[in-house]
Amino acid sequence: MPVFFDCVRVLFIVIGMLASLTMPRTGKAAEWTAEPAVTARHEYNDNINLSVHPHNSVRGSFITPSLDFGVNTPVWQASGGVSATQRRYSGQEGLDRDDNTSRLSAAYRTERNAWQLSASRSLESLLSTDLITPDTGVVQAQQQTEAKTITPTWTWNYSERTLLQVMYRMSDVSYENTQNTALYDYDYRSATVTLSNQISVLNQIFVTGGYSTFHVPSTEFDSDTRSFQVGATRNFSPTTQGTLQAGLRNTESFTRGGNPIFTRFSTVINGEVVDVLVQTGVTQDSRRENTSSVFSGSFERKFEKTLARLAVNRTLSPSGSGGQTEQDAVSFNLRNPLSPRLTLSVNANWQKTSDSEGNISNNNLTYYNFSSGIDWRWLRDWSVGMDYRYGHVNREHENAAADSNSVGLALIYRPLKMSISR
């Protein structure tokens, strides 16, 4: 996918040019930072596949070195990060994976304009990742996903109260061993334009128009979506803020004939849970159009020490099922420093995924999870984390729901951030 790599090279060149042009004029105004860390984790999971069939409990040991870095000047900033995770399991074969992520972003500001360019690449395991995506709960085998994304953004301050933002996103996603799981590689492109106005000290209103394309090369499936939303943000108090936006989307998709249509089932073969796809037909050349609502909202409250956030949304999201899926989601996050050294976190998520298009049916599911953890900073550079996680999935093609429980213990080494000004 040469477009992505060309853009990444351009991003590195832009950062280099900014550094060479800005440093002579700012003298000692540039601050360079680096923040390394190493995490060692061990966990127990009684159903890592989220399977309704007989299964084994597993134990996993992970090691994750990471590095965050950045440079700041009065007019431009650049930051990035890299991490790598080695995952090794006992109790079930085929789970070991080596994951890695990298990200890089640069921003340049003038009096009325701001330009930002960000890029990321991740290689993560579907069953092991903490992220909730449209593919969460769909497959019951350990699969690695490679995702590459680049996002340029331009923001124009038309006046003290009015702001215009234009954003473009390019994403390419590929899956390991797609033949056995029938996950489809896809390309996703989206553009959004947002106009906002600060109508008062406490209130802001905005309108957003969007256009996106979704393409599956192997099946020649294409989908175009247009959307329009209006919203508002209100600061109820210095510690309380809420945002709500809603609108409509219109999606037109084209299915090329001659490709198989699958229905997903799961079973146990040789003691391992596998997804089985049964061909139930063949696609015909067809065009389809559908319209639905889209919305998102969040409410955030800061107490004396505690931060709580509630969010809801309905989106049309790209997925590996050969098409896009409509998702209704609710999330709740709480973080509470119990003491200067002890921090409690609580997270809960609920997600309903529905087939909207594509070559695979029976992908509808409801998924929710809950996690709670405590982080204890027992020395300046060392901390210990303990957590419990519960997951539940109810797939349309299964007669029962699946549950999983896991507990983990982590040791984190995070030295003080290193900073150099020159």
Tell me what you see in this structure:
This protein has helices at 2-26, 178-181, and strands at 31-45, 58-72, 76-90, 97-109, 113-125, 144-157, 162-175, 186-197, 203-216, 221-237, 240-255, 260-269, 272-282, 286-302, 307-318, 324-337, 342-355, 360-361, 365-376, 382-395, 402-413, 418-421. Helices cover 7% and strands 66% of the residues. The strands form two sheets. It has an 18-stranded antiparallel β-barrel. The longest helix is centred in the N-terminal third of the chain and has 25 residues, at 2-26. It is globular and about 65 Å long. The chain has 422 residues and is mainly β. A hairpin with a 5-residue loop joins strand 15 (307-318) and strand 16 (324-337). It contains two helices and 22 strands. It has a single domain (2-421), classed as Porin, CATH 2.40.160.
Average pLDDT level = 85
From the structure provided, what is the oligomeric state, counting identical versus distinct chains? single chain
Distance between the termini: 38 Å
Query: Might you state the CATH topology name?
Result: Porin
Question: Architecture, according to CATH?
Answer: Beta Barrel
- Number of DSSP helices? 2
Strand content: over 45%
Radius of gyration: 23 Å
Q: Pairing-aware structural class of the strands and helices? A: mainly beta
Helix share bin: under 10%
Reading off the top of the CATH hierarchy, the class is best stated as: Mainly Beta
The shape, in one word, is globular
Count of all domains: 1
